[in-house]
Amino acid sequence: MRWDHQVDVLVFGAGMGGMTAALVAALEGLDVLLCEKTDQVGGTTATSAGTVWIPGSNQAARDGVPDSIDDARRFLAAEIGPRAEAVREAFLEAGPAALDYLETRSEVKFRAPPKHPDYHSNRPGRALAGRALAPLPFDGRLLGKDFGRVRPPIAPFMVLGGMMVGKDDIPILLKPFASVQSFVAAVKLLLRHATDRLRYRRGTRLVMGNALVARLFYSLRIRNVPIAFDAKLVELVRDKNHVDGAVVDIGDKRQTIRARRGVILATGGFAPNETLRGEFMKGLPVAHSNAFAGASGDGFSAARAAGAAVDDEHTNPAFYFPSSLHQDTVYPHILLDRAKPGLIAVNKDGRRFVNESDSYHDFAEAMLRTNAATPSVPAWLICDRGFIRDYGIGLVRPGARSREIERFVAEEYLHRADTLIELAQRIGVVGKNLLRSVQEHNRYAETGVDEAFGKGGTEYNQFNGDPANKPNPCLRPIAEPPFFAVAVYPSTMGTCVGLSTDGDARVLDENGVPIAGLYAVGNDMASLFRGVYVGPGITLGPALVFAYRAVMHLASSASAGLGDSRRRISA
Ligand SMILES: Cc1cc2nc3c(=O)[nH]c(=O)nc-3n(C[C@H](O)[C@H](O)[C@H](O)COP(=O)(O)OP(=O)(O)OC[C@H]3O[C@@H](n4cnc5c(N)ncnc54)[C@H](O)[C@@H]3O)c2cc1C
Known about the structure:
The strands form six sheets. Strands 1, 2, 10, 11, 12, 13, 23 and 24 form an eight-stranded mixed beta sheet that branches. The longest helix has 21 residues, at about 85-105. This protein is an alpha+beta fold. Helices cover about 35% and strands about 20% of the residues. Bound molecules: flavin-adenine dinucleotide. Flavin-adenine dinucleotide binds near residues 13, 48 and 298.
């Protein structure tokens, strides 16, 4: 093999997994090259909320919400059972160390919000806070002209032509006159944005996934870690049981790059790839994805071609959102509307089928389950005028004026009628059942107890409700005409099926033996959560921890270019 370049570590994909791996490799003194197939960093990570689920961290203890790894272990045992235990243990063991490592040695920093419950917050060992950590906001101006290299969030997650809004900013911007502090905070946010727009194409006050990506990118840049843009993994070069490097298209030039210590795949799984979805999600009516279009299965496919095994033993092959569709936008209904009081979801029968305030994944999973007996894809979110005024629905923002509502009605995103029977006719669901569903729900709203599905019955449900609404923060009558409906479909946020690995993220072959020199992290690695969505941040958390573990493993391999596993295989 004639190599055009040689490095210690070759990383593919500049999302959470790949940027973390490249950063840790550089911090460990290794000669690393990060290859990203597009001209921007971030992948799906850039459009995400940026939450990482990592139990037992020092950050949680420091921020006053301590968590215990033993509790997390109990919780995971209750949620997942005895599956992927070795990888799970590796994750639990290394999580706090990985966070500390990044916090002390780079600009990648997190805080633990005072409340952010696990999704099944009635399970033993669950945490109400401390496991889900949020990246600290970041000032994009620090990146200089590199700011343009940070993939922006999807448009509906920004306001006023490019201003990012975090969860904590929403009440401030919706009710700036609620207090002096709110007013001052709102004015500060708006002034900063106005100043930004004089010089930048969007706001530079970054929060959530964009802050996380910018922090990783900044940390790489200030250490001069080489990043090749428009650099696409084409195939892996494998010699017997060892991956030696890869063929990479950089711009319009094909290059061979040797990786003396290892190749780390972090190309984001295959959620938007229809062919791979057809293979691993056969028969499931899931036609849309919220993941970045470029995360299209390149690393996954290259590793399979090099003999890697696929791990597809999951309760669900992917993690889901319920999403509404408008032109090119697949809008995920994450937490702003479903759990709020005054909304129900019904299927084609006009009947409820789920606790609407459960997590997005559980909601979509219920759609798929129910769909086997009664058409539930799409399902319909039903609310009244007062709900839109107070909370908004999907792309329709809280307080939307009549003109905006008219536009969404004309574009058939929003369906509207003066009576529920008329609304049912318009959207093709059984009218008398819809009427009964709303009447029953309204009765539950009076008592505060949803006898059918328990909406608002857990800490997690209530966290996303409206605390000012009594007695149940997630229930209030649907009674103020006109009535509205929005269709939602299950969409993939990321894949759970992925490459089979061990606890050091080493890719395994069909015999369960590590392919020396090959690692997979992020969504290229099979999810340790086995398709069960246990809490916020369960894809980015492992992406961070296994990127750290992979580099620590290859950094400690005794002989460059061989790696301990190769010697074990040939022994
Ligand atoms: C709206 C939304 C909110 C979310 N919020 C959260 C959250 O808060 N917490 C959480 O844990 N998860 C969240 N997720 C899921 C999470 O964003 C993804 O699971 C995660 O970003 C995947 O990270 P990754 O590093 O594997 O891939 P990505 O971030 O997608 O990065 C992959 C990169 O690889 C590049 N690439 C692809 N092919 C090649 C190739 N051949 N050669 C070189 N480069 C290549 C891509 O261009 C891309 O830049 C959310 C998802 C969405 C859609």
